[in-house]
Amino acid sequence: MSVIKRPAVAAVATALILLFPFAPVPDFWITQLNYIGLFSLVVLGLVLLTGVGGLTSFGQAAFAGVGAYATGYLTTVMGLSPWLGLAAGLAITLVLALVIGALTLRMSGHYLPLATICWCLALYYLVGNLESLGKYDGLLGLPALTLGDFSFQSERRIYLLIWLAALLAALAVTRLLDSRPGRIMRALNTNRGGGSTMPEAMGASTFRHKLVMFVIAALLAAVSGWLYAHMQRSVNPSPFGIKFGIEYLFMAVLGGIGTVGGAFAGAALVKLAEDQLKVWLPVLFGGSGNYEIIVFGVVLVLVLRFAPDGLWPLASRILSRWLPARAARSVDEAAPPLASREHPQPGAPLLAVRTIRKAFGGLIAVNDISFEIRAGDIVGLIGPNGAGKSTTFNLVSGVLPLTSGEVELLGQRVDGRGSREIARAGLSRTFQHVKLVPEMTVLDNVALGTYLRTRSGTVRAMLRLDKAEEAQARAEALRQLRRIGLAEQAHELAGNLALGPQRLVEIARALASDPSLLLLDEPAAGLRHKEKQALAEVLRQLKAEGLSLLLVEHDMDFVMKLTDRIVVMEFGRHLMEGTPAEVQASPAVRAAYLGAEA
Ligand code: ADP
Ligand code: MG
């Protein structure tokens, strides 16, 4: 194994970047790198928002504009300090991002991209027509940034500020992605099979996390705009229009939209290529059109076709042949355990489901189903395909709203509540269609389950003040993985596991939330015989520890051996309920299954 570690490589790279302007390099390159740093700041926001969260924004240039104009106005018209200009720009951006986010992030699909396009256009024409902001000529004569007696007047000096900001932002985003809120953010991307169902079922507000990503991206853009304004010493509307809004997105996609390194790679490639193309294309084609836009369009199509993750992941795969291997972060098993909830006494009423109903249009998928679970029970829910078992699960866990009926969990009425609140009340679940974050490790996927037992938010994560709690969450995740026999795979990517083990990871994630009631939807599907036996053993052990289970399962043998009681459904209706022996002996059940097979 190499003695050089990754953090050492990162430290050397950082030092080289910050020392660069002290080297005898031509001013031209300093200027180029200043632009690349400024663009990277904006694109980092897009990495978080679009690459990680799956939320597309064309409006980042407008937020940069807010940062630039705020300081432009405060310093030139009002004669205040640029640092006040920064504070004002960030405050205005925060309010605008909260308002725009609150209005659009709850809506699905294309509303956000459309809204950000409108926002970018609106701001462009607004500042272009405001007398007080100098219309399309903008504001001139901004002061240079100073810190005490030190002036960042020259390109070489403001370089330090720009790159310090960019590197700190990269560090903060990297830390955020590897944290309690970060795990939720990474689970949201609908383009990568994510969404809000699973994070909500783990107790997280997905709206809140989207809003936080949107605000962070906007603030990063505003900082970039502030630095840009004081580098140029002037502001005008053109760098903040929709053309740049699109270009930032292009940089992100080209560089690698899901990766922090991609933000820098994309910013650098586009800036350098644009300069070259602006020189060479008019020579080749004559005239002076914006030919580079055409080339970028073609390149974008090629990247999306052949390297949809962007160029950075491609490059880093090649680079990592020379770099030391990334060491899997160890788990501190001596970390104190997370707090555990008060569980009900064995035999106490746990769940009461009373005549719940779900209609999908004309189809009544769940037709007035009632049953009860007492603490310590393992109850099976069986029935032919399409009987309404998964829908019943979704009603009980709050993933779907009820058409009618009542659900009581631990003495509290929970019908009408969302899955987030039901999770908080002590219910956890797995999904028939596995919902893991494939590009996250098995351990991180399970750690996501500790969301409700931990506290650290975005700011703490970015400052790495969450270390102690993260150690606890990771230790808990490993403990749960060991419980289901997957500790060996803790550091593998969840997407690399076979379907059977993925189901087990979902169980570990649900257990990590320390539930009083666990709902398992077809946990044994896709498992091999040995794995099924091991799973049955785990479930028996959970029962012995006093956990209560509601289980949907197709494997009759598995259900019969494991459960205390079974509820049988057919066509959404309650067919019968009894002990495994009674269910097995029932002619009605046999007929239902035979009917389904015929
Ligand atoms: P099971 O899990 O017992 O196989 P489900 O609960 O998944 O059955 O489905 C019960 C019935 O409800 C099926 O006929 C299914 O097609 C229908 N169904 C389930 N989800 C939806 C939905 N979101 N919209 C419309 N119909 C649905
Ligand atoms: Mg089902």
Describe the structure.
- It is a single chain.
- With 598 residues, this protein is an alpha/beta fold.
- The chain has three domains: 6-242, no CATH class; 345-426 and 515-598, P-loop containing nucleotide triphosphate hydrolases (Rossmann fold), CATH 3.40.50; 437-512, no CATH class.
- Helices cover 54% and strands 12% of the residues.
- The chain has helices at residues 6-19, 27-52, 60-77, 82-104, 111-129, 155-177, 180-186, 197-201, 206-232, 242-255, 260-285, 291-306, 311-319, 389-396, 419-425, 442-448, 458-462, 467-483, 499-512, 529-544, 556-562, 580-585, 587-597, and strands spanning 139-140, 146-147, 150-151, 234-235, 349-360, 363-374, 378-382, 404-409, 412-413, 427-429, 517-521, 548-552, 565-570, 573-578.
- Helix 18 (467-483) crosses helix 19 (499-512).
- It is elongated and about 90 Å long.
- The termini are far apart.
- Adenosine-5'-diphosphate (ADP) binds next to strand 6 and helix 14.
- Residues 389-390, 432 line the site of magnesium ion.
Summarize the structure.
Helix content is 54%, strand content 12%. It is α/β, with parallel strands linked by helices.
